[in-house]
Design brief:
The protein has one domain. Helix content is 34%, strand content 29%. The strands form 2 sheets. It has a 6-stranded mixed sheet, sandwiched between helices. The chain is globular, with a radius of gyration of 15 Å.
């Protein structure tokens, strides 16, 4: 059975922009530096994004006053959360899964710029979909 990758073209473009930033800067900078550079790269590559969007949360179909603010929302449907850590941790993964659960978005990318020797990223599908995490 062949499984189609959700938002394949869009996520490919996002990850490509992340690789470009990593190739230019390498590892070891603060997360804020990668955030700023990635926003520039998204603009340069024509990737539509909102930086630190306030995503509404729901509880039992009721809206909450609290919001989540991931690092980016790209193409109005893909959450991009960036980190600058030695390795991605379960806490990072839980944060992204909670973003998906609480916002109703379907796909998130968790990207770690400080991993060596290469960029580390993971794809997450909303828990209501068949696979929660697809490592890359």
């Amino acid at each position: 059975m062949k499984t189609e990758i959700l938002f394949k073209e869009e996520s490919f473009k996002i990850v490509g922009a992340c690789f470009e930033v990593y190739n230019q800067l390498g590892h070891g900078f603060l997360e804020a530096v990668y955030q700023e550079c990635l926003a520039m790269e998204f603009r340069d590559q024509g990737i539509p994004f909102i930086e630190h969007p306030q995503l509404k949360l729901c509880y039992k179909t009721k809206s909450l006053k609290q919001t989540y603010q991931p690092d980016f929302l790209c193409f109005d449907k893909i959450i991009v959360e960036i980190k600058s850590a030695k390795n991605l941790s379960d806490e990072h993964r839980a944060q992204v899964i909670n973003y998906l659960k609480a916002t109703g978005k379907i796909l998130a990318l968790l990207v770690n710029f400080s991993h060596y020797p290469k960029l580390e990223y993971e794809r997450f599908l909303a828990p209501s979909h068949s696979c929660n995490s697809i490592n890359s």
